[in-house]
Amino acid sequence: MIHVRRLAKSFKHAVHGVAVVFRSEQNFRIQVAAALAAFALALWFRVRYEEWIILLFLTGAVLVLELVNSILERIVDTFKPRIHPVVKDVKDIMAAAVLIASLIALLVGVTIFYPPIALLVQSW
Known about the structure:
single chain, Helix Hairpins
């Protein structure tokens, strides 16, 4: 059975978590801005349904990876000092995962938006 109050409380905690990361992580704010820009372009150029799905999936994946990165950084910092070499490696590897996902999302975005932007530029 679904308990509405518990569910509402869970959503409240989740929104708080996103707000904490949004306030404390510059990269997350940049990625949210990039996602909003991609969605605005998708609306402007009226991209196909399939392209919307791809954009939503990739932006969601990048944002979720950044949340996981923030979680991992906080956990690792709790157990070991920031200067420990293993802690540095763990943080660097997680940052690399976010970077790779972001680069893939960027490449897909360029693939989706290049044709309509090129047409727009040619029409000037």
